[in-house]
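Re: weekly structure request thread

Next one in the queue (183 aa):
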Amino acid sequence: MSEAIPIPDAWRFCPRCGDDSRLTGQQPFQCQNSDCGYKHYFSPKTATGALIVDSSGRMLFIVRGREPSKGKLGLPGGFVDAGESAEESLVREVEEELNLVVLEYQYLASFPNEYAFSGVVTPVTDLFYVARVETLDGIKAQPGEIDGWKFLQVEDVSTADLAFETHGLALKAFMALSDDETN
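Done, posted below.
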């Protein structure tokens, strides 16, 4: 498979009765079997991202260790698991990815995103939080997920270096918040 396709185009068979719908790309998916009638809405998955700043005012970025956007900068975070709140996901992901313990967090903003995985593009809603961690000592990158980390001044980060457009939007929201707090 060479190019990722939108998830509605990838659905062909009804997950309830198994019938071949032959009507790919429909939103919502509607089973064509009149005895079934299953509908599926392709609502977004939820992901979280942490904006963590050190005592010098530099932000912590990860270097992605896998596709999509392997080698690009990102914010620590990831997908919310079933049965988990966004805040629980934030705390878990920061600990898994960087071995850091989140003490406090404050919601910053959310943005729609798309995530290409296994040849399918899924809609995502990214929720960003400004987080404070117990200590920045002992950072350890999660093998296979993270190739490293960097502390950078936010204004020095180019959107071209970021893994996702939403991370750039979160940085803009953070800078606007910081400007509001200094005025």
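The chain has a mean pLDDT of 92. The domain at 45-182 is CATH 3.90.79.10 (Nucleoside Triphosphate Pyrophosphohydrolase).
Next request, please.
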